[in-house]
Structures are given as C-alpha cells and as structure tokens.
C-alpha cells in the first residue's frame, strides 16, 4: 500500500501525540518530546523518560511511530535521550493548565540538581500544593505514591476532595 504524505511536518504530527498516563497532555506539553528531525531517509524522534524505568516509554514510542506513519512518514525511528534528565520544569504552561483543569495539581518548581549527585531524602518532602478543585492552599498528603510513580495522592480539607499531584522532579 502506498501512502501519500500530508502537507504537515513530522514535528506537527509528533506534537499531537498524547501521554498514555496523562492523556490530557501531549508529549510536547509534558516536555518529553525533545527533537524531531526529517531527512530523505525518514524521521527521527528523540524523547526523554520522565524517570528511569518509566513503563509508558514503549507506548509513547509506539504511538509516535503509528501517528507519523498514518501521516505518511514511512520510516520512523524513536530514540531515547537520557541527558539531560527530564524535569517537571519542562512541562509547558499549557500542560500545567490542562493538568489543573483535569483535577490534577501541577508541580511546583523542581529542586535544583547541579552537576553532582542528587541527595536522598528519607522523609517525604513538605509541599504546599493548592487544591485544583477549589484553590485552597492548605492541602494534606494522603500518600507519596499514586497511580503512577510520578504522582502523589492528596486531599483538600476545605472541599474534602481527593486529588493527584504531579511530584516535582
């Protein structure tokens, strides 16, 4: 079967692919879509995992390949880039807004890494996270572990609603 490539760039197509765990965000909004290059030989896409061992990477890769092939780009290679490591600071403003609209508290500023090792904290960090439902500033942690490793569970005493919070990385 011969496919005809649409009049869109590979980057435009790649920027429409959504995250499998946070479907209200595109991979571009999440900041994991790094580079998209087009050559006569095909398309090369570079993505960065949100954390080491992220189980969504295979799905992200497959979704990118399928979207690009449907748009007429026959040869697609998806590369994983680990340096620099992904940071929640890479989530776009639009992505942060979409998280809040979906009832998920977006992350605050990520801790500064520097060039050395990341210090290990044995106690959960104290965070001031506003409720995405009512805006109350004083919410409480329920669990540092949510449905995915990058999210925590919280509750708002003001409106009594539980919600997820994307942890600062």
Automatic annotation (TrEMBL):
Transmembrane segments: none
Stretches assigned to the PaaD zinc beta ribbon domain: 119-167
Gene3D superfamilies, A to Z: Fe-S cluster assembly (FSCA)
Domain MIP18 family-like: residue ranges: 15-78
Matches recorded under InterPro entries: Fe-S_Maturation_MIP18, FSCA_dom_sf, MIP18-like, PaaD-like, Zn_ribbon_PaaD
Classification via NCBIfam families: PA_CoA_Oxy4
Designated name of the protein: Phenylacetate-CoA oxygenase subunit PaaJ
Organism from which the protein derives: Prauserella alba
């Amino acid at each position: 079967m011969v496919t005809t490539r649409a009049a869109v760039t590979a980057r435009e197509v790649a920027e429409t692919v959504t995250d499998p765990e946070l479907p209200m965000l595109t991979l571009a909004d999440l900041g994991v879509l790094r580079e998209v290059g087009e050559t006569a030989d095909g398309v090369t896409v570079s993505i960065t995992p949100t954390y080491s061992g992220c189980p969504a990477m295979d799905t992200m890769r497959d979704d990118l390949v399928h979207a690009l092939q449907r748009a007429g780009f026959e040869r697609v290679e998806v590369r994983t880039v680990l340096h620099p490591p992904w940071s929640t600071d890479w989530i776009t403003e639009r992505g942060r807004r979409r998280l809040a609209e979906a009832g998920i508290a977006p992350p605050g500023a990520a801790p500064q890494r520097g060039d050395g090792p990341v210090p290990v904290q044995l106690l959960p960090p104290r965070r001031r996270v506003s409720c995405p439902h009512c805006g109350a500033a004083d919410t409480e942690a329920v669990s540092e572990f949510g449905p995915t490793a990058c999210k925590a569970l919280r509750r708002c005493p003001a409106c009594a609603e539980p919600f997820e919070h994307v942890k600062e990385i």
